[in-house]
Structures are given as structure tokens and as C-alpha cells.
């Protein structure tokens, strides 16, 4: 039986960093599901058709990490048919042997409600904005506004809103170094049988 680790949380909380480290530690595959929504948003045209026809080239565009791509992703992510078109691919990936780590917003609640490990990674708005501003070499106030707007849209949508699963473990990384956050996540996954 494959082992699935679901990691959710708001923008720039550290999900991807923790997910990559867990995958590397346990020899699991990793899927950054946010990239799927970013690719749909960046493709333009009809978002439902874009989601249904997403190919490998769409996921390697070099403009997917921008704040604009994040906003476009969050808009198309509220469309039920877009989410439906991406569901099966994510569920199949989650069944990878010997295990898989998926990070996003609805992994523990909708995509993999049976995941063996569920983490909900958070950090204060200010810390998240600072980290993302350094990463993108952008103005921290502009990034803070962008993250808050996106989080509000992600949490308020009707379909698969961003929220911790009832059985998720919360990991607040506000005052943690990357190494500390990774160590806590590995410890938790080991306890759960990874
Ligand atoms: O995937 P997500 O958007 O949640 O966040 P990330 O890309 O993993 O992390 C955002 C930025 O915060 C990266 O530059 C990380 O290196 C940094 N980070 C940090 O400084 N401290 C942590 N405990 C976790 C991440
Ligand atoms: O890295 P960051 O946390 O800033 O964003 P991301 O994980 O790349 O996600 C971009 C956007 O895609 C989010 O703001 C959500 O609107 C959407 N998303 C989603 O709805 N469901 C997921 N499983 C992953 C991302």
C-alpha cells in the first residue's frame, strides 16, 4: 500500500520546502499541486479547456512563480470544472509507490482524505510576505497585499476552500528555521509509519 503525505496551508507558509524535504527523506515522489493551477491560469483562454488539456510543457514555463501567476491561479482555482479536471491526475499521483507527498490547499480535505499524514503549515502574514518578497526580490508591502487577497479568495470559495482537515496536524513555521520545520515534519511522519 502506498503511503500518502498531504500538506496544505496558505501562500508562502513553507509547504513546498517541507514537502520536497519529506519526499527526499523518505524516497517518495512529490507533486506541487499549486503548479497545476498556476499553469492553467497562465495558459489563458478558457480555463476549463486549459485544465483538461494540461501538458508537461505547460508546467515548465518560467513565468509560473510570479505574483501575477499566483493571482491568476487563485481565480481559476475557484471554478469547479477546473478542479474536477485536475482531480484524477492528483489522486493517481498520490498512489505512487512507495509513497507520495502532495502540497496544496485541498489535499487533506478533498484530494486525499485518507492520507496517512496530514500537515497544515501556517506562518504569520508578515513572515510569509517577507519570505516571498526575498524570494521574488519584490516589495514586501505589495506581496503582503497580494498574499492576503489570495488567501481570502482561497478560503472563501465554495469548492474545496482552503482549510485544515479535521485530523490535520498544525505546523506554525513563523519562528522556525527551515531545518527545524523539516525536522518536526519528518518526526511526525515517522511516528505515523512513514
Ligand atoms: O510552498 P509555499 O508557498 O507554502 O512556501 P515555500 O515556497 O516552501 O517557502 C516560501 C519561502 O519561505 C522559501 O523561500 C523558503 O525558503 C522560505 N522558508 C523559510 O524561510 N522558513 C521556513 N521555515 C520555511 C520556508
Ligand atoms: O506557493 P503558493 O502557496 O504561493 O501558491 P501555490 O501553492 O502555487 O498555489 C497557487 C494558487 O493555486 C493558490 O492560491 C490556490 O488558489 C490554488 N491552489 C488550489 O486551489 N488548490 C491546490 N491544491 C493548490 C493550489
From TrEMBL:
GO CC list: cytoplasm
Gene3D superfamilies referenced in this protein's UniProt entry, alphabetically: P-loop containing nucleotide triphosphate hydrolases
GO molecular function: ATP binding; dCMP kinase activity
Membrane-spanning residues: none
Short name of any one Pfam family annotated for the protein: Cytidylate_kin
Reactions the enzyme catalyzes: CMP + ATP = CDP + ADP; dCMP + ATP = dCDP + ADP
Protein's UniProt name: Cytidylate kinase
Origin species: Paracoccus aestuariivivens
Gene that this polypeptide is encoded by: cmk
Amino acid at each position: 500500500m502506498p503511503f500518502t503525505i498531504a500538506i496544505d496551508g496558505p501562500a508562502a507558509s513553507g509547504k513546498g520546502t517541507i514537502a520536497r524535504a519529506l519526499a527526499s527523506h523518505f524516497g517518495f515522489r512529490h507533486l506541487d499541486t499549486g503548479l497545476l493551477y498556476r499553469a492553467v491560469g497562465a495558459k489563458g483562454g478558457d480555463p476549463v479547456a486549459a485544465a483538461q488539456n494540461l501538458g508537461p510543457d505547460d508546467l515548465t514555463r518560467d513565468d509560473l512563480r510570479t505574483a501575477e501567476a499566483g493571482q491568476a491561479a487563485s481565480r481559476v482555482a475557484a471554478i469547479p470544472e477546473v478542479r474536477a479536471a485536475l482531480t484524477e491526475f492528483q489522486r493517481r499521483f498520490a498512489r505512487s509507490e512507495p509513497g507520495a507527498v502532495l502540497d496544496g490547499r485541498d489535499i487533506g480535505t478533498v484530494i486525499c482524505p485518507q492520507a496517512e499524514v496530514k500537515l497544515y503549515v501556517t506562518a504569520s502574514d508578515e513572515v510569509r510576505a517577507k519570505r516571498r518578497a526575498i524570494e521574488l526580490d519584490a516589495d514586501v508591502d505589495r506581496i503582503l497585499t497580494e498574499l492576503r487577497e489570495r488567501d481570502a479568495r482561497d478560503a472563501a470559495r465554495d469548492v474545496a476552500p482552503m482549510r485544515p482537515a479535521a485530523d490535520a496536524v498544525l505546523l506554525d513555521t513563523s519562528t522556525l528555521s527551515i531545518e527545524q520545520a523539516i525536522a518536526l515534519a519528518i518526526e511526525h511522519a515517522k511516528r505515523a509509519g512513514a
